[in-house]
Amino acid sequence: MPTAEGVDGSTGENFQVREPSGPALVLDSTDPAELALTASQAFFHASPLAVLASADDADARATAAATGAAVTAPVLLTDGGVSDTNLVAELDRLGAGTVVVVGDDEAVAEIGEATGDSDVVRFDPGALSAAAEAAASAGRGGTEKPDPKKVRLPTPDRLDEVDVDGLRAEIPDVADPELLQEILVAVDPKPGQEAAIGTALAAGAVPVEVPGGDIATSPETVSTVRTLKPLGVVGIGAGFGTADDLGWQVAVATSGRTLPGGMLRLFPGRYVSTSYVVPAGIADPAAHAAGVVEEAAANAEAFDGSPLVTVVASVRSGSAGEDGNHVDEQPLEAVTAAVGAIRDAGQLVLLDIAPGNQPMAAQLDALEPLLARPGVGVSVHPEFRLAGEGAQDGAVPVAELQAVVDRLARTATEQGLPQIMLEVHQSTAASIVDRADLDVPPQVAVVFTAAAPGEGLATADGVWADVAAGLPDRTYLGWSAPAHPSAVLPDEPLLGLVSAG
């Protein structure tokens, strides 16, 4: 693992910080002491100094975190999910000959054996810097009450300079340590995370506050990441998901291949779909598509959403055809030209693929050049599936839909794309067997569109109730009707997709 190092001018002990192994790392423990320990292990290879405080004392945690950031030392916590034995082992691994214990004499006595054989220096500044707190209060208008679920970043300026200078006189002097370069630490600060964040700041990581722990839904954060172009990112807190999830978000934010509005996720929001078939034999598909762009914009305005065009990529065939799949694929060149024109107009595209007797993912290979573009997704119709390859007429096992989801997620990750939409048309939830078992990764937004029946068939209300019930986690609802949808448009829950023609 790469390190940057300096040498302690007093003792000759090595001081080394770690870079994350890979483009992204997530420290997600919910136990403050365990989170602090993993942060120390993630950011520091060695340090002659460590800071220690009680996990049960919020003020001590905040002070210790700011202290670690001020004196370039990892921060550890006692009284949590980490035993004294493990804390001593971490101090030994670091080579920390000196431990700064935050608190009064009683606090030092209570920490006891957790310091091992290290020299103990007590640090009790009494309170975080009154000047820093006053400035923070003024920035909040002076009257706003702090959010108890959120904490301020434990930056060194929260300590009084006189207190810090006094502490530095008592501890080993790390001469000009080389800190991390171009490594971000993504945080949505919560109580209990202070020590881990302080350790990251001590190692030189640049903090980026991410509201809600989701880079993808904040255009401001996406812009910040793109500007900084980090070599690696560490997320502190379970809200950042897996390392792969965070790595995908950072890669897309850095590339600048975002969705309209600068975000990486499609929802929350509403999209209004306009259908488009590229006429056979047309000389200029791109020019012809200009008309549908105008229609889509008008439909979107009427239904208070963003325009989206569903471009037919394949249609059902009454015969098996040369490839035996009962599907006629549209010429890729014509579809490509139309998609390019629609995307150039800033509108999103769904490629509508007809089911035959092969798994729904089978047609994605041919469409890969289009799916590799940001803002291009897929629309499928499982209830028209013909029997074959493990499916019955009119229904598919959830594994077949999962294969489509996984394929789109892989494309998004490998191509550095923002979230890809997958629309699934259904007039009955039973057209996907075990639908609730679908596992949706963050790279894909799945919309189940309730396809209202024609006159004389089942009621639209019945279809809506059936399709809307028991949705898989992290999925959205859409509505499609044979007539203008305004008369029967459901109000609850808020629709993610409306078919307007």
Features:
alpha/beta, 8-stranded parallel β-barrel, 22% strand, elongated, disordered N terminus
Task: Please report the total strand number as a whole number.
Answer: 24
What are the segments in which pLDDT stays under 50 over at least 5 consecutive residues? Answer: 1-12, 134-144
- Side by side, the strands of the main sheet go 13-14-17-18-20-22-23-24
Number of helices: 14
Structural class: alpha/beta
CA radius of gyration is 28 Å
Basic shape: elongated
**Percent range for β-strand residues:** 15-25%
End-to-end separation? 55 Å
Q: Biggest β-sheet, characterized? A: 8 strands, parallel, barrel
Fraction of residues in helix: 25-40%
Mean pLDDT: 85
Concise overview:
This protein has 501 residues and is of the alpha/beta class. Helices cover 32% and strands 22% of the residues. Helix 8 (219-228) crosses helix 9 (243-255) and helix 10 (285-302) crosses helix 11 (332-344).
What do these coordinates show?
With 501 residues, this protein is α/β, with parallel strands linked by helices. It has 14 helices and 24 strands. 32% of the residues lie in helices and 22% in strands. The N terminus is likely disordered.
Task: Describe the secondary-structure layout.
Layout lengths: L2 E6 L5 E5 L5 E4 L4 H12 E3 L2 E6 L3 H14 L3 E4 L5 H11 L3 E5 L2 H7 L7 E5 L6 H10 L21 H8 L5 E2 L7 E5 L6 H10 L2 E4 L9 H10 L3 E5 L6 H13 L15 E6 L8 H18 L3 E7 L1 E3 L10 E3 L2 H13 L3 E5 L11 H8 L4 E5 L15 E2 H18 L4 E7 L5 E2 L10 E8 L8 H9 L6 E6 L16 E3 L2
